[in-house]
């Protein structure tokens, strides 16, 4: 061998064609192709052209997603790694580990691998050749038999640490796990190593007395080269120890793909650097070929599965696992799509990015923010902020609830609400402060308090709308349950009555969607958008008063209604949704029996179809990203009221009905003198 094959001469370079057994397709693994004699030279470069064309696995398309199984992912990992291995002239498993470090971006990996500042690549690119006939097994390396003769003085602390290590070894924990766990518990690495060595020495002594010793144990870690496998970092492990260690690593689940070289490389007794999760170990990741050598077909299949999962998790903008229990599908985002509403073949609908119940069009961050705002603690803190002032002495919040300026805190401090100064001394009266001037501190506080008040009222406004929708959902669900019971207890023909359940399902779906539209409205931008010139159809910026194209058209009064989106249009859409669902809901409003509704079948079907069509349109708009650019991180401060869809007036958030003369539209339903809100 003139060139280093990256594995040392003791181990033949695994034939890359052997990995054809990946996935469900491809040729069966043929043992006779595997060189049985370790001395037999293996091909340096596999003949890529000789690879048979493998069939590319496909998933099942659902909406903007392709539902794929683990085999599909395995094939993806295999193909991209093989491709990169061919370009770089490296073994497949090494290629896999490098690509992982670059989030599977092989173009970036190909360039950045040669730069100084490449990310953790899990492997060294250059390997050093050694010629000894005996090599040291790294799994045995930490057993320091010399240590037992010296008998150093031991403190109580040390024997406690030794006991801990002994217990962990008994529990079957690996060397890496033990050392890392203890270093994390703030033990000094040098102390941990000492304790570990002492325990290992005791164990080794016991083992040496037994009869069935492996070559490694007999030679106290020194083994012949042929019976060892080397990693690219130059560290050896004897075959017995490798098999043992890798078999154990299978039990760690997905962690197996992070299994690294077990050589302790840190010689510094007072090491303080190695507190990261790599500990004092060599960072070389053990490549697939080594697992393949020691794990057998079942084991390597498990390894491949975990690597496939790692691949999908590393590409979380592209893949998301279906959260339904026992569902084995991964959803793959189709190219050019970034939809968050994911639907699996199993029927589960969920948020692609956060795995919660689907909440589109609200982005995950805003959804979380809204839930947090609704949390008891937050509502309370906003409420406190808007009505209270921290006592200047003890900082406890004090509520001002009378017109009187005199404030007294439970800490015994008395101060003036206006100037925040000590009450006594400067001649304060209950309604008169002699030194009142708005200093910086109280001005800042007032601005804060006003902002909190506005935010609180705004949140409450939207929250109240959601409560009404949630009540509706409960009502519809109850009705559905009742009808289902009625069906069960009679011998009615299901086909005749199915339109009723379809209508109720449409209602439920619409109401669910409305909840998320309300949250969307909370974050919707109030910014004026473009308007379309009615004379020449040119799309003008919101700031233009006259059409810049033809000069004839002028900006409409309700420009947003004619424009390409905006809060008004959105709220209009929202209220229309309320109206179409109300029309349908009214048909079920009385306590009708199934047969009474059957009399009204034609009407129910028509109204249901209209509602369904509208909901579909809204969902489509959402999927097309119509609202995306209008959703802000926090509620728009410039919006201080709600928009009446009947008369186009902006109303104060505190008002439940439109304050415009003679309008009286309800804020939730957009109906004048709304019967649902005032059932008289
Ligand atoms: Zn060994
Ligand atoms: Zn260290
Ligand atoms: Zn190493
Ligand atoms: Zn599923
Ligand atoms: Zn989400
Ligand atoms: Zn005062
Ligand atoms: Zn109005
Ligand atoms: Zn109403």
SSE topology:
Elements: E1 60-62, E2 65-68, H1 70-88, H2 92-101, H3 106-112, E3 134-136, H4 147-150, H5 156-170, H6 175-184, H7 189-209, H8 215-218, E4 222-224, E5 228-230, E6 236-238, H9 239-249, H10 288-314, E7 319-321, E8 330-333, E9 341-343, E10 349-351, H11 364-374, H12 376-387, E11 388-390, E12 397-399, E13 406-408, E14 414-416, H13 440-488, H14 494-523, E15 531-532, E16 539-540, H15 559-562, H16 567-586, H17 594-599, H18 601-623, E17 641-643, E18 650-652
Antiparallel strand pairs: 1-2, 2-8, 3-4, 5-6, 7-8, 9-10, 11-12, 13-14, 15-16, 17-18
Helix pairs in contact: 1-2, 1-10, 2-10, 5-7, 6-7, 9-10, 12-13, 13-14, 14-16, 14-18, 16-18
Residues 137, 139-140, 216, 238, 240-241 line the site of one zinc ion.
The total of beta strands comes to 18
Major sheet, described briefly? 4 strands, antiparallel
Stretches with pLDDT under 50, minimum 5 residues: 1-49, 143-152, 558-565
Average pLDDT over all residues: 77
Overall structural class, as computed from helix and strand content, comes to alpha+beta
Q: Measured on Cα atoms, how large is the radius of gyration?
A: 36 Å
Structural shape: extended
Indicate the percent of residues in helices.
40-55%
Distance between the termini: 96 Å
Treating each run of at least 4 consecutive H or I residues as one helix, how many helices?
Answer: 18
Strand order of the largest sheet: 1-2-8-7
Instruction: Tell me the strand percentage band.
Output: 5-15%
